[in-house]
Design a protein that fits this description.
Elements lengths: L2 H16 L6 H8 L3 H14 L4 E4 L5 E4 L13 H16 L3 H17 L2 H18 L13 H13 L1 E8 L6 E13 L4 E7 L9 E4 L3 E10 L8 H5 L11 E7 L4 H4 L9 E4 L5 E7 L2 H9 L5 E5 L4
Antiparallel strand pairs: 1-2, 3-4, 3-7, 4-5, 5-6, 8-10, 8-11, 9-10
């Protein structure tokens, strides 16, 4: 059996042990991109190597199989790339000021390291550190947004418990201080600023969500008043209304990339709603609908003369 097929079988066995509901033949076909016949063979090999595998009926006439917990304890190992990915994820969480989540992931990494055999750990640890440096995460230059952890933690607590908050907020332009009672809904993390998304508790602004620059929030007080999280609000959909995080009325956007950069541009997802068309002359047309003109302009600047804005038209 080839190395690739052996690796696929090990991946399947790990999946079968980690899945509570079990894995079906359709799951195997979709996940590994194989035919039903190949999926049957893979399943049969698992049953041969792990006779303790349990067959279960999901109630939909579709058979599923799972391997009892602990069966693969002495088989599962981790490699340098996997450790590197976990460390990169931890660094990304820290960069986004999600320190509590970063600490939890760090705890998971420590547990994984503790479970690795000593001789294996001594071999892969230097490789994992080298991969981190190669990814440019360990010492990435550039500005970082500084936000008070106490502010973030208080807002997170209020979001989880659906409590109103009162913030002391400094206006970005006038520098004047205001006090706002809010129903906090979530966070949006951008390249230049991070934002609190919240609704004014008194209905100001027609009861619509507003963005507050997090580094301009100077103090947060959690109030005893409870608010009901709006069931029709989706942070994901709210974010998709804009090219970045700045919210404004959406417009129809059309960009035309020249032949020189068309292939490169085709690998980008500029917006979740985009449609892409390769034109007969080798150019690329990208269309989507959202707001955030300023952030679009900042991004388009990086493409220089290789992109033409078809719409929206400049006033």
């Amino acid at each position: 059996m080839s190395y690739e097929k052996t690796e696929q079988l090990l991946d399947l066995a790990i999946w079968m042990q980690s899945s509570r509901e079990g894995v079906s033949l359709k799951d195997i076909m979709k996940h590994f991109g194989v035919s039903k016949r190949t999926a049957d063979r893979m399943r049969n090999l698992i049953l041969l190597r792990f006779p303790q595998t349990v067959e279960t009926d999901s109630g939909t006439r579709e058979k599923r199989w799972y391997i009892p917990q602990g069966t693969l304890r002495d088989i599962i190992q981790f490699n340098a790339e996997e450790l590197s990915c976990l460390n990169i994820a931890k660094e990304a969480l820290q960069k986004s000021h999600l320190h509590e989540k970063a600490d939890k992931l760090d705890g998971i990494i420590k547990k994984i390291k503790a479970s690795i055999k000593a001789e294996t750990f001594r071999r892969i640890e230097p490789d994992a550190e080298e991969l981190m440096r190669a990814e440019g995460i360990a010492c990435r230059p550039g500005p970082k947004i500084k936000i008070d952890d106490a502010v973030l933690n208080a807002i997170r607590e209020a979001i989880l418990s659906c409590h109103q908050i009162r913030i002391t907020y400094q206006n970005k332009n006038s520098k004047k201080t205001s006090y706002n009672t809010l129903n906090p809904l979530g966070f949006l993390y951008g390249d230049r600023n991070h934002y609190l998304v919240a609704i004014h508790s008194d209905g100001f602004g027609n009861g619509l969500p507003h963005n507050f620059i997090l580094m301009n929030v100077k103090d947060v007080k959690i109030l005893p008043d409870i608010f009901v999280y709006p069931t029709d609000f989706s942070l994901q959909k709210y974010a998709e209304q804009s090219f970045g995080v700045f919210q404004e009325d959406p417009v129809d956007v059309e960009w035309l990339f020249d032949k020189e950069t068309a292939d490169e541009a085709s690998h980008y997802i500029f917006h979740p709603s985009q449609t892409v068309r390769k034109n007969p002359d080798g150019t690329l047309t990208v269309r989507f609908r959202c707001g955030g003109r300023m952030e679009m302009d900042w991004h388009l600047y990086t493409w220089g003369e290789h992109v033409t804005v078809i719409s929206p038209h400049e006033p």
